[in-house]
Structures
1.
Amino acid sequence: MMGNEIHKLINENVSLRKDCDFCNESRLEVRETTNYGAAIIYKIGNTIENGWFATLSPKTGGDPTKDFTIQLMPLAHLTHFSQINSYTELAKNYGLAFSRISEAVYKVMMEKNNLKAKSDSKDFGISIAIYGKCTTWKEKKEHLHIKIFRLEVISDNRILWIALF
């Protein structure tokens, strides 16, 4: 019984869905914006077996002129982290996308705010948070997305574009 349920989860249909905002956004090109104003800032791969994209959202948990939220999503309609394991190139590109976006965030934060690689105080240190979730609860089951955001102030979101290219 348990093996059958895991098999169902791992082998779910991951095709793009017309009713999913993230699936629709995955068709956009870098520098295009979504209906709610998020900008596509990064893409790697070009199929549901290998592709990821990232958006810079206009919505943040703090001051939108200082904070940022980046969402990293697969092109495929994955709903669980465990499904990534079924696609070797997707897993590889996740690592590349996540590390490149993280490096760009650190570059921007360090350069714009004179922050240090090792700081004796939080005033010159970098605080990044990563948030991702998945569930098998039907009502809350959605396209996998990972949020990357700063816990402190960042002075200019637009510079992130330059660091990624």
2.
Amino acid sequence: MAYYNKQKEDINVSQWNEAQLKMFRINTLQERINDLWTNPLAFNDEAGKYNFELLFQSIISYWYEVRPKTNNTEMEEMDKIVNVVENFMDQNQIIKKKTIESPATYINQHVPSGFTTDINKWKILRKLLRKLEGDIKGLAELHGLSGKNKEDDSGL
């Protein structure tokens, strides 16, 4: 953000530190991702989506914070993984609305929500999301976008 200073007749640059803002955004995304992992199959009324869908969106936002620091090979590799996950989600319905033929059938099934989860597809998606998140975290650490730890005192 720049502003015009009439007294000095020059342009001053804002005191904001982009590295600090980036670390704040990354931290916020990591907190959101961790929260969504607590119940990924729950429906989020506020967003109108399932938590695993929000989880994917948050992981993608995390990727877009890390992406500018990566080299072309890393970028291409991660973009391929993102596409695999996105295509899997587009082509596979993880949670389906149950078809209820009669009230008696509904009661006998003991599923009050009327929805069913395809466990096998969920297991695949869960592995894909964990791989995607883990690879991004690895790149974040590799490129100095993670907090300091005992093994390595580098970071922003």
3.
Amino acid sequence: MTIEQRIRASLNNPANKSYQGLEADAIVEVMEANGCTRYVDVGCFHGGLARAVVARTPVRSVHLVEPVRELLMCAEHEILEEVPGMPVHMTNAAMVGNDRNSIEITVTTKSLSASGISEKCPFVGSRRIVEAVRVHDYLAMHFPHDELDDLFLKIDAEYLDLDIVSDLLAHNWLPKAFEFELIETKLYDEFLNTVLRPCSSYVFPDNLPIKSHRYFSIITSPTMYRVVGFEPFEVYVGGSHGMNMVPTDALSRSEWHDPRMNRFKKSS
């Protein structure tokens, strides 16, 4: 089995189907409500989430950023298999929120096996020095200020998300909507008060709904937000009027393959 076949096999993992479908539905809801037609995926991994997004809503172009080249190539394949001819722009780099020129990464067994990828992939455990690119510099290079109004930015930069969001907000290079991951939920209150709340361009939850989740993804825009909590999988919706758990039939576009997700299925 080739490296790409091993990676692509992970997309058949039932937990991944649930994870990607759930998160993609929340992303697409925010994208469509805000007129986002371009999708930038920082930390695209094997492209499963990006593929789920382009399968659900019309997208003009996709930008994929991933420090592991093998995963980046797989992600491109995923997008083009779903939407042949889609403009796909690839950057093999690690995104940061500072002026670092390079960063050392270790492709861990834990991160890949959790996504269903065989530990026998030859690049697992490898340590690499990869180019580091400041996210706001990347956006400035590819998207002038007047081209940010239809841009959705997804950030999953392995513990660097908060630094990147802080840098973006400080430089006022703001996409129409964006997503970032919060692994330590206890950090949210301080981050909300010191970084997020002073920025009036987006709405954010005043608190996270259930502290027992392992981590959250927060999707935000000028008028609405979605909070995706994993382990257990839940989506919370909110805007200026607080937060509620998503109704069981609200994610009808998903095709779940995991019995844990049956409560999100559309009733027949």
